[in-house]
Amino acid sequence: MRCQTCNPGPGKFEAEPVETFLAFRAWLSGAADEEGTDWAFVRFPLTLDADDIADARDAGYCASCIDAAGHGLYGIGLEISEGGFVYGYPFKTRAEYESAVTYLRWCEARAEREEA
Ligand SMILES: [Zn+2]
Questions:
Q1: At CA 24, angle to CA 57 and CA 98, rounded to 5?
Q2: How far is the CA of 76 from the centre of ligand 1 (A)?
Q3: CA–CA separation, 57 vs 91, rounded Å?
Q4: pLDDT digits (tens, 9 = 90+) for 63-116
Q5: Domain of 85?
Q6: What residues flank ion ligand 1 with Cβ within 5 A?
Q7: Taking each helix axis from N to C terminus, what angle separates 50-58 and 18-28, rounded to the nearest 10 degrees?
Q8: In a domain, 11, yes or no
């Protein structure tokens, strides 16, 4: 269920849970598990520093959601849309996560073949 206290946006994280915001930061700082041009996968738990927490608060996320970020999840897939919005797809299990990574790798390989 979506938190009624968090209020991210408007902007690239509009309507996204705190996991999307924090995992995107982790991606930018080189902590992605797998990455392509406009997508990445980040495993939980995330290691948050004071800046991560402060910036998440500034972005409109509430303290309890920041505290609980990633609990019960194995990881998250991130996608940057053409409009610059960031979308998150959380995965509860390692199997779900890994099959999504495999699928994205396959899509990239196919796109490369089509370009060749
Ligand atoms: Zn919240």
A1: 130
A2: 18
A3: 24
A4: 999 999 999 999 999 999 999 999 999 999 999 999 999 999 998 899 899 988
A5: 18-115
A6: 3, 5-6, 62, 65
A7: 130
A8: no
What integer is the mean pLDDT of 21-50?
94
Residues 6+ apart with CB under 8 A from 81: 87
**Any idea which residue has 């797998």 for tokens?**
34
Its pTM stands at: 0.92
Task: Please check whether residue 89 lies inside any domain of the structure.
Answer: yes
Query: Distance, CA 68 to ligand 1 centroid (Å)?
Result: 9
The whole-chain average pLDDT of the chain stands at 94
In terms of Cβ atoms closer than 10 Å to its own Cβ (0-12, 13-18, 19+), residue 46 is: middle
- Going from the Cα of 35 to the center of ligand 1, the distance in angstroms, rounded, reads 27
